[in-house]
Amino acid sequence: MNMAIKVEKLEEPGDDDAPLYEARRKIYPIAVHGTFRRIKWALLIVTLGIYYLLPFLRWDRGPNAPSQAVLVDLANGRFYFFFIEIWPQEIYYVTGLLILAALVLFLMNAVAGRLWCGYLCPQTVWTDLFQAIERMVEGDPRERREKLKTASRSQRAFEAVAKHTLWLMVAWWTGGAWVLYFADAPTLVWQLFTGTAPLVAYLWIAILTFTTYVLAGHMREQVCTYMCPWPRIQAALTDEYAYNVTYRYDRGEPRGSFKKSEALRAAGVPSGDCIDCKQCVAACPTGVDIRLGSQLACIQCGLCIDACDTVMNKVGRPTGLIAYDTEMNIQRRQQGLAPVAKVFRARTLLYAGLIVIVGGIMVATLAMRGSEGVSVIHDRNPLFVRLSDGSLRNAYTLRIVNKQSLPRRFAIAVEGVPEARLEVVGGISETENGHPVVEVGPDQTYELRALVSTSAKLPANASLPVTFSVTDVIGGETTTAPDHFKGP
Amino acid sequence: MAEHQKNVDAVTGVSTTGHEWDGIRELNNPLPRWWLWTFYACIVWAVAYWVVYPAWPLVSGYTSGVLGWKSRDAVEVQLADLRTQRGAFAEKLQQASLAEIEASPELLSFARAQGRAAFGDNCAPCHGSGAAGSVGYPNLNDDDWMWGGSLEQIHQTLLHGIRSTDADAHVGDMPAFGRDAMLPRPDIIAAADYVRSLSNLPVPAGVTPDLTKGKEVFEANCAACHGADGKGNIELGAPNLTDGIWLYGSGRDAVIASITNGRAGIMPAWGGRLDPTTIKALTVYVHALGGGK
To answer: Record's InterPro entries (chain B) (predicted)?
Structure first.
């Protein structure tokens, strides 16, 4: 039987082909008032405030260093974050930061759902702002629909121009703030307004103005539902004990209009609290119906909670029909059991533990890293040289790093070769206790050629481990790097 | 109508493509409109790209595109940029004396980088990429210099060469004592054994060197250039015979061969072939290899 159907299908495909594309249903969420809306406004102000103003925050690092608290200095290959300065070879701190961020996302999800998506994600924050501007200009969705019928053509044109102008201004400011993280902010602002900023700054502002305008103004929830991988991943990170924005179907069903359910209740027939007013759907920025349960498109912003609570207050039923709740608690209530809050579970403890470990490692390495460094490369060709007096010489390239903002002098020494003589090629003017000294400029690296010679008789095919040490002549801080001394 | 419903998935209500694998049917979810538009835009972009840029191979040549863009031109622009960027440093290098270059860390670093590249292009075929040399071609890392290892001396050698066609080239002849019948073979062997004894080289088994005769021969024929003590003379390019470095090998046969046939290695003059700044950079690079005096 099944076979027969299959054959039939293969022979007749496409007689009801789906459309080539799915026409977009534009979403105009209504304005809501309540706890979560207030939290979202507060977070919007805080996050955007940080983003727009942080480049102007100053941080004194002394001479020879920029005084911007957060700065990505691409030209000089430095990243400044308050008291931390990262060199390109320390990119693993950024890796660590990303690992930490991922773990925090996981933990958020295991504890209280998509907090990131709903409250903190830039896409959510800017979309929220753009939708607020849209409502401010065009009015609430109901008003908007009315206007489509009643308002004059010129008024609607004016509103459209006003909306897009405001959007573009926000987008432009967003792109403008971005480039400030890559150069001295006050200087760049002055340059931007006097038309003397580098072309690349204008280019990036244009690109980010465009992306902000398109993503927050036009793409909106499609970024979450089509473009973002996170909604796909987060389904695997939640469980029955995780708090999520939940429609409490145990309380809400069977749903029905207020009048009908009141009549049923008067007759002694059980009826749910949901009056099917669809305010939760109207308030949703991604246009989903939370009553269908957890779903990919739900960013868990909590606005449906506010919308529902408002209605419940009006009809005199208890609030919290939609609330942060767990799947487990719904089931327990249905069985007449008391709800439980189980925050300490294997996954939350695991994530928290990993966060502590990764964070601990990062803090420890940051605290213990020195203000100088040395790396060494042995000459590959020739591996060794026989000198006229019969002694052997190996040549190395040393790279000395001075991470302080003052010039420093370093004494270079080598250990591990008997009767070793150390010579250094390049800018040497003095010695310290018989060791050659080099000066390395502030926040710079210095490359030099080190020649190690010995008259001692070495065994055949000798490869002696040697250690180069670099000591700050004044501070005394010492760093070492290992290599080998090769013989015939 | 019945057939129509067969191509709709009962659970999701989404139509299927009609394909089925082990009971799993492929849903035919429509694409978002913007995605489709992006797809069309990519097609338009591709066509425009064919028109504007070089794209299609032809029997001889290719479609060059209306912009006339060539990767070769792009390289030229980048090289011009590079020359501009190097400009300031290159000028400093041109002005500075050799000693000034070695005294300034940044000039030294720039000169060594330029010298390393020029060395690889011009000198490495004989001296090796690491300047370690080989038999007949001196190792430039060591501290033994036939024509002098100071900056000025290396510079002179580079400019004019050794036994080259240049009028100011270093010239010095090691006679072919055997081939030209200037010495009988036993004298040559005695001289070779004596010379090897100067740097305490091991005597091969079964050989009894006649050092007294060797010394006589040496003083009569060799000392004029190599010095009575055998320490050589850089004015004449006569190598030091008492040290541990032997350009043509320290074996008994090799030394006998050198005395019999003479030696006259040639280095070309680079003045006129390379620009003065590059020769300066090469001088500093070779000097900084480790053997410079």
So the answer is: CcoP_N, CcoP_N_sf, Cyt_c-like_dom, Cyt_c-like_dom_sf, Cyt_C_IC, Cyt_c_oxidase_cbb3_su3, Cytochrome_c_Oxidase_Subunit
